[in-house]
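Question thread 4412

I'm putting together a teaching handout and wanted feedback from people who do this every day. The idea is simple: show students a protein as raw sequence, then show them the structure tokens that encode its fold, then repeat with a second protein so they can compare. Below is the first pair exactly as I plan to print it.
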Amino acid sequence: MTRASRQPSRRETYKGQSSSSLASKKLNRQHISISLCISIIVVFIGAIQLISTFHTYAVNLSELNGLKNQQAVLLEQKRQLENDIARWDDQAYVTAQARDRLGFVFPGEQAIRVLHPEAVTGGQPSQAHKQREVDAEQSQTSLPWYREMAYSLGKADAPSSQHSSDSRQVNSNREGNTTQRNTDGDTQPRK
């Protein structure tokens, strides 16, 4: 028998099967590694979506809580303002405010204003008293707006201390001319 006609031995068969099973195992490993990569990518994308959803939920929840707090504050302000409006319907409150804020007195009463209430009471003056004192000082020292404006315009038109000096000479490098500034502020060429 010749070698070509002879049947393959066990070793040769094992080697042949071994090489085909190795190729099959390599193919199977490649298939598993590709499947594993695809699975990891899908899980990663799913995790990103889930995290994004939870983040959006948390942001919306905090925004909702902030709006609820703001609503509570606004409701309290509304209640306070409605209470202030209701107080003005009471004649005794209006009278007390007119006496306190504006210094009104009933006919036959005599108004007494203490200039330094802290000297009498020993405490600090209230904010309303401080504001009244400031208003009184401003009304005593300020002029009506039209007189204040006339005073400002007159002061602006008056020659200032720099211009009130005899005259000031300004040398101009342009064309070699020398100019003289009068007290009016006009410039005239000198000869």
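The second pair follows. I'd like the answer to focus on this one:
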Amino acid sequence: MSEPDTRRALEADAIEHVVTELTARYPSVDATRVRGIVEDEARRLVGNPVRDYVPSLVAHAADERLRQEGEPIHAGAGDPGGPVLASEDDLDPLEVERREREQHAGFLFGDLGGGSV
């Protein structure tokens, strides 16, 4: 496969990913309508000499159009936010050891800020 063919295949895969993502994000809009909007936006950029950003530009433009037709589901919906706390069983043994050292570090324990040696 030549380089232009490879680039076209990668771009087509990226556009298909945009269709999948936007279909999931706008469940109130019919999937064929989402695909049509994405393909329409991709056609608008056919003559563009710089192809690296085409999938991102298509995703942005299609997202803007879809907002007029349906309400998006936000990726963080239902997520309380904040860090995910791992249990001690899930941590690497070296991470457990580092955390134990940190608990006994600091000015109260004689550490003058130079870290462990």
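Top answer:
Good format. For the second protein you could add a caption like this: Residues 104 and 111 are 9 Å apart (CA to CA). The mean pLDDT is 78.
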